[in-house]
Amino acid sequence: MSILVTGIAELTTNDPARGDDAGSDPGDRLLGIVRDAALVVSASGPDAVVEWVGRAGDAPAADERRDLGGRAVIPGFVDSHTHLVFAGDRSAEFAARMTGTPYDGGGIAVSVSATRAATDDELRGLVAARVAEMRAQGTTTVEIKSGYGLTVDDELRSLRIAREFTSHTTFLGAHVVPREHAADRTAYVELVIGPMLEAVVAAGGPALAESIDVFCEPHSAHAFDGDEARSVLEAGRTAGLALRVHGNQLGHGPGVRLACELGARSVDHCTYLDDADVDALVAASGTTVATLLPGVEFSTRSPYPDARHLIDAGVDVALASDCNPGTCYSSSMPFAIALAVREMGMTPAEALHAATAVSARSLGLDRLVAPGHPAELAVVEGPSHLHLAYRAGVPIVRALDL
Ligand SMILES: [Zn+2]
Questions:
Q1: Gap from CA of 265 to ligand 1 centroid (Å)
Q2: DSSP letters of 152-180?
Q3: pLDDT tens digits, one per residue of 286-304
């Protein structure tokens, strides 16, 4: 069964070779824009595949037809950094921060206690609601980290539940040092890279966790310094996991350079960078993506990273939500795009590309709208992708269910 989708005022393909010849605008070229477009998709549901892309006037016949009435279609957002497996409520911590209490990572322990106390079904229900919330805002692919269990059993449980929703799961046992290990950090790092990692591997290795991540942040007493982060990442790499890093969020530190040196797929936050960090990211382009999470700066009232400088230097810049209960309880990729455009100097086209093609690359995927590719699409209640940032805060984009 095939479906012909028409009434597409503007289609973002992320394939510059596929865009309209007339597209002299650099944003149009980056996004491979086709105007007055049509698509043919085989089958329906999660296994749908794009069969044909082009101008509406050239469209072949199909079994069924669907008219979108002049809306824009974009690749579904790839949210490559989230912490969806958690229980409890930290809205009071947010309120306190807005009236002057700085963030230092200590509140994570509150989520750890609540998550350990929750049943499997409670956690599963919470993750399901968050994934549905994301899909309703155009996100069709999500990465989910563990990191609020911090025992062997609770980390495994978090990963198993995350795995029910995505194949892009990340083991984040090195999120913070839990309270019960505060007196002996070394013992906790040895637990993470020893029994905890061994249990993840024994339970399926890359089948249970695609990546390993570490909160490398010498400015937080709860997170990990450069040497600790290196041992976590090297152990994960030996176990066959891809590498991701939380780096340079609260201040200058070794996270970005470590991620680049070790060939991580992504280093995330990148809020505080010096010239050597930027040089390392430029040299690592094609391998290591800098994933910016502007919802965090918004929700912690912090300075935004300089995306304009990074892109102009040649760094691969992605956008993600970092949806988590402490520093950004927003699952909205359109919100991240609006912040990237308004606060970080990205063009609307760069922001959409960063939230789809580049964030996908950090998960080992591509996100093209082209024949043979999964039909992971979103539809915008407006004639162009520009409306994503232009109509900030308005629910105008959703995953396209055919
Ligand atoms: Zn995070």
A1: 15
A2: HHHHHHHHHHHHTT-S-EEEEEESS--GG
A3: 999 999 999 999 999 999 9
Q: Which two tokens stand for residue 356?
A: 């789809």
**Quick one: pLDDT at residue 205?**
60
- Strand ranges, E, within 13-156: 33-42, 49-55, 64-75, 77-79, 139-142, 144-145
Per-residue confidence (pLDDT) for residue 100, from 0 to 100: 85
Q: CB–CB of 347/341 below 8 Å?
A: yes
CA of 322 from ligand 1 middle (Å) equals 5
Residue range 274-281: mean pLDDT, rounded: 98
In terms of Cβ atoms closer than 10 Å to its own Cβ (0-12, 13-18, 19+), residue 372 is: exposed
pLDDT tens digit string along 18-30?
A: 888 655 788 889 9
CA of 198 to the centre of ligand 1 (A): 23
Structure tokens belonging to residue 310: 């990074």
Q: What's the average model confidence in pLDDT over 217-239? A: 95
Give the angle 113-114-115 at the CA atoms, nearest 5°: 95
**What is the Cα–Cα distance from 91 to 295, expressed in whole angstroms?**
15
Residues with CB under 5 A from ligand 1 (ion): 322
